[in-house]
Amino acid sequence: MPTECYQESLGFQSLGRREVVGRFDGGAITSDGGGVLLREADRRLKLLDRFAACFRDYRSPWAIEFTVRELVAQRVMALALGYEDLNDHDDLRVDPLLAVLAGRADPTGGDRIHEQDRGKALAGKSTLNRLELSEPETAAGARYKRIALDTDDVDRLLVDVFVEAYAEAPEWITIDIDATDDPIHGEQEGRFFHGYYGNYCYLPLYIFCGEHLLAARLRTADRDGADGALPELDRIIAQIRQRWPQVKILIRADSGFCREAIMAWSEAQHEIYYVLGLARNARLEKELAASLAEAKGVYEHTQKAARVFHEFTYQTRKSWSRARRVVGKAEVLALGPNPRFIVTNLPAAQHAGHDLYEQVYCARGDMENRIKEQQLALFADRTSTATMRANQLRLYCSSIAYTLMEGLRRLGLAGTDMARAQCQTIRLKLLKIGAQVHVTVRKVWVSFSSACPYAATFTQVFRNLAVVT
To answer: How far, CA to CA in Å, does 76 sit from each of 377, 399, 404, 454, 457?
Structure first.
């Protein structure tokens, strides 16, 4: 008979006449019980299978314990559950629920080859790190780092998931572009100081359509914010138009992307439009002067913010190839004048200037929420490894984790009071749920707390995900 290990009792502050005693004797209990919903979402999306297929595995099949699919599933699921670093995985190796999410056949780890690994079903940080350190050019002949990523495949996957989210082709889609800073705290490759952000950083480019992530490209900070945006747009729109040849597309971005190349390319395409911020200058402000005076008069009379819109045709002296439609917003606030401008190729007869600015252009601010969601909740800013290539892989893993969470929100949370919840809220209320895990020969029992405050929502999400469409 095996000897039972002594469990030290932890005496906490008493509750009236009752002692409060704690012991680590509850068995296999996870703090991530709600992760099973992520697995159900992935069953619908088949996202992790397709992400794993983007890797080329040159390892000898007889010499491995973890498939590429298990490794990438472990990494992505952990990000979605709030574990941002590879170092976390050395502690997570014993979690049977995460092993279930990663697709391990024996979530107890009893089938591991080496004795020291028994009871640890998952890979440690060193094994996972090989995904980042493998180089496509040398992976086939390397000794250890033999799992190479095809980045083009991942780029196509993100767009495929977006297109598949629609039952039928939409008439219009709006593609948002933006750049943000990703601070660097070491001597990583591609380290440059960015004057606007005031720190050493990367300058990743993001492209979204609504809540769908279409591209996340890591870039050095020693460049124009719009650098590389046009090739990405060309690639993404070509892929979309393969499925939806008649869809009308609006490109939306701030003044950092108001570049002749992007505007001229859009104008040369069929049914591709743009609404871009336009940096103000003396000529633009002179054109808006009368409207600004009118807005100032309204403000002085009402003591409330006043806006007057003015449309005109404008062309730069050197950089633009043609004159274009500009909408100016003459606004006066308590702090003073606040003139703003946008440029567009949308026809004035169909899109009035004030609606174009207030209803169309200003809505691009929601994209900033999506970027914050990925950077803060799914750790897209954890680009602390040595090379740009490895950090791009980390950005891809974060992007797949975001796409998985977006799929859970879109497919599972529809019709619930959390249908518009952000990733961190979904994680806190539905994923970070304590559960006891009991593994038998035929079943994995996941027992949630009877007092779970979100049990009804959880059950509804499960039922939504179980629907086969």
So the answer is: 13, 9, 9, 24, 24
